[in-house]
């Protein structure tokens, strides 16, 4: 088994690490405090080719692999998990179904703008009554001639406030249940499309989480994504893929918290010696380091399986489940090592703790990951 990165992957990792350390990290606390969309950093990320990483070269992308996408997610999350969420919301969620299930005309229309960072994408699936139970959505798509008319509300939509393009999932035929759900590409300037409530969240403050409202929103049939009735399958395949990058996000948050806690433990003196020389702290650090290492192997394995066209759904669910729970554990321990300082906003520990929690919830809760894993084990 070869656990090393290729030369190209290692170079890419180094480039993203430098960008995250020198450009993102110095402003991460301000992004969190202000809760603002970091448009300047977003454009710089586009200039590095991050948004075109997995997109075909003929659309201006880099035709890169998924391991590189995982490396990107991990490194950026070490500096600012909110920016990573914005990137993943566009690349791994919003544009992914267009790239994978769309027509050539649809890819040609939208991909170049995504690559350049000129547009932001979002993935509009979740509703108040359809969270983990995605097949229960109530938003409707009614065919009227050469158009579809959308009506309904979506909630908890990452990038919802800034997105120019939304992939919206709606029911064409309620009598067919989940097999009546289709997917549509909706541009935000379409009449009847509006942004509703913005959520005031615990963490990832620089990334908007918004309600989207569709009131007689009329879109051309050419904006239907793929085939009628296959929308839920498209959504679930997208989420399966995105779980790997969210697991990498959780990994990055955990690694950043560990690095800070380890460094602090070497300089903070109590009872006449540095914290790191006290066995209680040593055992905390040992547990944290071991779990982070295990997560990294699981995340990289899932990405490798995807890159090589192998089944990876179970492995993605395992990586997402463990990474989210480890990230919460590690950030909690890191706050404990910092003591009172860890509870104060002068240090990044409390931000890491707040940001980590969402990785146990979005892209499928930990409970849903266990269901996915169990189903795979039973087949």
Topology, please?
Elements (H helix, E strand, L loop, with lengths): L6 H28 L4 H9 L18 H14 L1 H14 L1 H6 L2 H13 L4 E4 L15 E5 L2 E12 L6 E7 L9 E7 L5 E6 L10 E12 L3 E2 L5 H37 L1 E2 L2 E2 L4 H29 L5 H26 L10 H9 L8 H13 L1
Parallel strand pairs: 1-4
Antiparallel strand pairs: 2-3, 3-7, 4-5, 5-8, 6-7, 9-10
Short descriptors:
4-stranded mixed sheet, Butyryl-CoA Dehydrogenase, subunit A, domain 2, 379 residues, alpha+beta, 10 strands, single chain, 3 domains, Butyryl-Coa Dehydrogenase, subunit A, domain 1, globular, 4-stranded antiparallel sheet, Butyryl-CoA Dehydrogenase, subunit A, domain 3
Describe this structure in words.
- The protein is of the alpha+beta class and 379 residues long.
- The protein has three domains: 7-116, Acyl-CoA dehydrogenase/oxidase, N-terminal domain (Butyryl-Coa Dehydrogenase, subunit A, domain 1, Orthogonal Bundle); 121-229, Butyryl-CoA Dehydrogenase, subunit A, domain 2 (Beta Barrel); 233-378, Butyryl-CoA Dehydrogenase, subunit A, domain 3, CATH 1.20.140.10.
- 52% of the residues lie in helices and 16% in strands.
- The chain is built from eleven helices and ten strands.
- It has helices spanning 7-34, 39-47, 66-79, 81-94, 96-101, 104-116, 231-267, 279-307, 313-338, 349-357, 366-378; strands spanning 121-124, 140-144, 147-158, 165-171, 181-187, 193-198, 209-220, 224-225, 269-270, 273-274.
- The protein has a four-stranded mixed β-sheet with strand order 1-4-5-8. Strands 2-3-7-6 form a four-stranded antiparallel β-sheet, with helices on one face.
- β2 (140-144) and β3 form a beta hairpin.
- The protein starts with 6 loop residues before the first helix and ends with a helix.
- 50% of the residues are buried.
- The mean pLDDT is 96.
């Amino acid at each position: 088994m070869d656990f090393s990165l290729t030369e190209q992957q290692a170079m890419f990792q180094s480039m993203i690490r430098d960008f995250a350390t020198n450009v993102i990290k110095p402003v991460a606390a301000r992004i969190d405090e202000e809760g603002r969309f970091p448009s300047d950093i977003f454009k710089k990320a586009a200039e590095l080719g991050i948004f075109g990483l997995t997109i075909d070269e003929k659309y201006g992308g880099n035709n890169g692999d998924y391991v590189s996408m995982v490396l990107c997610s991990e490194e950026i999350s070490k500096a600012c998990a909110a920016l990573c969420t914005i990137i993943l919301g566009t690349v791994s969620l919003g544009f992914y179904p267009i790239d994978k299930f769309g027509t050539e005309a649809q890819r040609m229309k939208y991909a170049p703008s995504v690559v350049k960072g000129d547009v932001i994408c979002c993935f509009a699936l979740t509703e108040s009554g359809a969270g983990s139970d995605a097949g229960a959505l109530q938003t409707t798509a009614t065919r009227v001639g050469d158009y579809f008319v959308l009506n309904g509300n979506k909630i908890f939509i990452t990038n919802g406030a800034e997105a120019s393009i939304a992939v919206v999932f709606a029911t064409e035929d309620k009598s067919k249940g989940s097999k009546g759900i289709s997917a549509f590409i909706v541009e935000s300037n379409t009449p009847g499309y509006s942004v509703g409530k913005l959520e005031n969240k615990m963490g990832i403050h620089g990334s908007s989480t918004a309600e989207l409202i569709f009131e007689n929103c009329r879109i051309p049939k050419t904006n239907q994504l793929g085939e009628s009735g296959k929308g839920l399958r498209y959504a679930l395949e997208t989420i399966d893929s995105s779980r790997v990058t969210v697991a990498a996000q959780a990994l990055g948050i955990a690694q950043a918290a560990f690095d800070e806690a380890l460094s602090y433990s070497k300089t903070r003196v109590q009872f006449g010696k540095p914290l790191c020389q006290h066995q209680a702290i040593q055992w905390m650090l040992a547990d944290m380091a071991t779990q982070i290492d295990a997560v990294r192997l699981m995340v990289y394995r899932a990405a490798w399986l995807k890159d090589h066209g192998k089944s990876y759904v179970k492995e993605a669910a395992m990586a997402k489940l463990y990474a989210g729970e480890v990230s919460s554990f590690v950030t909690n321990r890191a706050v404990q090592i910092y003591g009172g300082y860890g509870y104060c906003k002068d240090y990044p520990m409390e931000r890491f703790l707040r940001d980590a929690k969402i990785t146990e919830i979005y892209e499928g809760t930990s409970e849903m990951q266990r269901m996915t894993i169990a189903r795979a084990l039973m087949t």
